[in-house]
């Protein structure tokens, strides 16, 4: 509704919020009739990289034990070198702050190079067992490789691959799909590893923010740490030694609540509340379970709307506080 | 008819326009803050995550109310469970009206109650009449009413789905006409929906319903594509007309559907760039991806990995050429980032999404993955393009 957008601006001018000079500027800009395909084209580029590397990965593993596989592997290695060579040539070098390529295509060249590198490392281990019989070392090596590239070329995509590889090193599959299906690991003791890794990531992020080392990576780090910790704690609460995780739950909620307020990051705020609420309800169910002999189950169902309304009121208040602070930050 | 104060609704549009202007750096932060604080507004959540959170809470509330009602009236309701479902719909209506009176709009809670009310009502009709035709009719009418009264975007979608369901039901169950015409009738309906959208969209009086109209348009475009998509037509004609496709044979008019499966998305893409319509462009790109999937589903011309490789290279070449072409353009269609584009948001989103496709896990467990097939990425991306 183009004409409506103009009317809105007109109204804002009438109400005295927008000056006439600004309105003129807006009109002139609209007359250019710009239609930017920036996001769409970059998204397609991203898709093409994923398709291509997916094809390479499948090709190599399907042709293991056949004659051509050495050739394919050599091509893979050569392509990786070419990608990294071009990236090095165009990169402005390492910096503690954010550095962007002049042409965003190179972000994707870096991504291609890193994925091919990971495929190569994984394959070497698979065929020649260069890291001995311990397969998890491959993940560690991939993680180091990706961290190096991510920090040098300032690539958040490669950074996120590095963190995933690090989680794989301790035995956790950390992808959006597994987080939502609550399948990040199969072994209960991994809750403790998950906690440890999550806390380590948080500590590293806090350290880098203080030292001004790639400060803009913090959102990716915090998001990973939050989900890793959240899922580990929720899983831990359902285990035998559940009471051990109660202090972690409290600390987790408190920490991410304050961090989200500080960074004005809505997603961190929302997930802190969601994990906290899930954890709290698990504990509540444990209490109800404990009181079960008294046969109060019917009574609880009848009272449940009151509980839900109570939590809604609480959440509305929390969100309002958060928004107030966020909007105050606008000024 | 409108459940909310029109002035307040209009203000929320002013604020979102102001937000756009701020993102495009035309107005300053303090100007935006003035607008957002001085105009009286409805209770809304602009952040989608917060809204989804409240939506879930609203659904909890609705179901917990249902649970306690069952507990309280259990003895009375031995044989009257049908009445019960109507009663739930009534609870939904009361909740919806209450929230509207309390000025909750696009908040999440109101979405939960509007949708639960409709769900309960359709379930009630389905249970008492056992006729899907009536349910679809109810969806068309009640969806439209909710969309207009509560300015509720998703209800417009429900109404559209009801319309398609109604048509489908009339042709396949009531035999209004030969099933052979189903794809074309669907396409005509899509064109109809698009023209209704055009007409309503051009009337400035309807600006409160901008989002609902947008959903209607996308629905029309998607319906137009899928009613002529080869896979949909083939599967439907197999199940509805009992046509069995033998080796070397094909469904009637196959060549037409092959052609349209690709022509429709290409038309969307071309027309959207010509008219600068971003939504249509996205629908075009996604449907074109589905077209490739459709063809690969029936004809495996080459193994998956080669298809992925070639697809990746061809796509890269096309995008590279397009970027080259648009790079230095200052007006019209361009590669320059939008003034309102939030680069930080895009970078973060891509970073988090990369893990959904790329798997850096080692192929360690030989027993469950003998040749590591697809251990390193693969399937996930394959379907989208």
From TrEMBL, chain A:
InterPro entries: DUF2157. Residues 11-158 form the DUF2157 domain. The keyword Transmembrane applies. The chain crosses the membrane at residues 41-61, 67-88, 108-129, 135-153, 158-175, 190-207, 219-236, 242-259, 266-284, 296-316. It comes from the Bacteria. Pfam families: DUF2157. Keywords: Membrane, Transmembrane, Transmembrane helix. This is Putative membrane protein DUF2157. It comes from Flavobacterium cauense R2A-7.
UniProtKB/TrEMBL annotation, chain B:
The chain crosses the membrane at residues 48-73, 85-101, 121-147, 154-171, 177-197, 209-233, 253-274, 281-300, 306-326. Keywords: Membrane, Transmembrane, Transmembrane helix. It comes from the Bacteria. The keyword Magnesium does not apply. The keyword Transmembrane helix applies. This is Membrane protein DUF2157.
């Amino acid at each position: 509704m183009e004409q409506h957008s103009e009317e809105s601006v007109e109204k804002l001018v009438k109400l005295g919020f927008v000056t006439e000079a600004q309105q003129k500027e807006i009109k002139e800009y609209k007359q250019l009739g710009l239609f930017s395909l920036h996001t769409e084209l970059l998204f397609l580029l991203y898709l093409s990289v994923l398709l291509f590397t997916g094809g390479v990965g499948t090709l190599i593993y399907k042709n293991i034990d056949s004659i051509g596989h050495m050739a394919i592997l050599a091509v893979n290695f050569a392509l990786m070198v070419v990608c990294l060579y071009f990236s090095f040539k165009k990169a402005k070098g390492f910096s503690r702050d954010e550095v962007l390529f002049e042409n965003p295509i190179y972000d994707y060249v870096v991504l291609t190079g890193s994925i091919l590198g990971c495929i190569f490392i994984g394959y070497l281990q698979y065929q020649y067992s260069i890291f001995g019989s311990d397969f998890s070392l491959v993940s560690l090596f991939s993680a180091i490789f990706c961290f190096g590239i991510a920090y040098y070329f300032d690539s958040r995509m490669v950074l996120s691959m590095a963190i995933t590889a690090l989680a794989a090193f301790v035995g956790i599959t950390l992808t959006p799909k597994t987080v939502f299906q609550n399948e990040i690991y199969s072994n209960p003791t991994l809750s403790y590893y998950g906690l440890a890794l999550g806390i380590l990531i948080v500590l590293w992020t806090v350290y880098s923010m203080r030292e001004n080392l790639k400060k803009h990576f913090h959102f990716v780090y915090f998001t990973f740490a939050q989900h890793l910790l959240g899922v580990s704690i929720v899983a831990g609460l359902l285990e035998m030694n559940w009471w051990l995780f109660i202090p972690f739950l409290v600390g987790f909620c408190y920490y991410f609540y304050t961090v989200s307020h500080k960074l004005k990051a809505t997603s961190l705020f929302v997930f802190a509340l969601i994990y906290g609420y899930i954890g709290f309800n698990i504990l509540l169910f444990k209490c109800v379970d404990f009181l079960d002999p008294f046969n109060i189950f019917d009574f609880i169902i009848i009272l449940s709307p009151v509980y839900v309304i109570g939590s809604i009121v609480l959440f509305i208040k929390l969100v309002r506080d958060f928004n107030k602070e966020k909007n105050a930050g606008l000024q | 008819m409108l459940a909310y104060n029109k002035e307040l609704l209009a203000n929320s549009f002013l604020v979102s326009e102001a937000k756009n202007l701020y993102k495009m750096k035309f107005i300053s932060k303090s100007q935006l803050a003035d607008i957002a604080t001085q105009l009286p507004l409805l209770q809304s959540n602009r952040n989608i995550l917060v809204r989804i959170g409240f939506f879930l809470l609203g659904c909890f509330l609705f179901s917990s109310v249902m649970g306690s009602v069952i507990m309280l009236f259990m003895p009375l309701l031995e044989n009257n469970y049908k009445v019960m479902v109507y009663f739930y719909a009534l609870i939904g209506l009361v909740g919806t009206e209450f929230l509207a009176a309390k000025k909750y709009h696009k908040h999440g809670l109101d979405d939960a109650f509007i949708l639960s009310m409709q769900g309960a009502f359709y379930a009630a009709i389905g249970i008492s009449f056992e006729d899907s035709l009536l349910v679809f009719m109810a969806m068309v009418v009640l969806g439209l009413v909710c969309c207009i009264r509560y300015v509720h975007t998703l209800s417009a979608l429900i109404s559209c789905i009801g319309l398609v369901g109604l048509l489908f039901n009339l042709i396949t169950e009531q035999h209004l006409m030969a099933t052979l015409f189903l794809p074309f009738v669907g396409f005509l309906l899509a064109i109809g929906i698009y023209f209704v959208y055009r007409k309503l969209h051009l009337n400035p009086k309807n600006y409160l319903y901008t989002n609902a109209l947008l959903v209607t348009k996308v629905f029309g475009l998607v319906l137009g594509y899928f009613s002529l998509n080869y896979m949909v037509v083939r599967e439907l004609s197999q199940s509805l007309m009992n046509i069995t496709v033998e080796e070397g044979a094909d469904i009637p008019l196959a060549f037409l559907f092959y052609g349209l499966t690709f022509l429709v998305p290409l038309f969307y893409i071309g027309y959207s760039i010509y008219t600068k319509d971003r939504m249509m462009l996205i629908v075009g790109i996604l449907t074109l991806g589905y077209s490739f999937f459709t063809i690969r589903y029936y004809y495996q011309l080459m193994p998956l990995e080669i298809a992925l490789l070639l697809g990746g290279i061809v796509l890269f070449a096309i995008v590279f050429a397009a970027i080259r072409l648009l790079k230095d353009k200052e007006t019209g269609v361009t590669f320059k980032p939008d003034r309102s584009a939030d680069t930080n948001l895009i970078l973060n989103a891509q970073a988090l999404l990369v893990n959904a496709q790329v798997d850096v896990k080692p192929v360690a467990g030989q027993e469950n993955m003998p040749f590591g097939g697809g251990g390193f990425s693969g399937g996930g991306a394959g379907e989208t393009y």
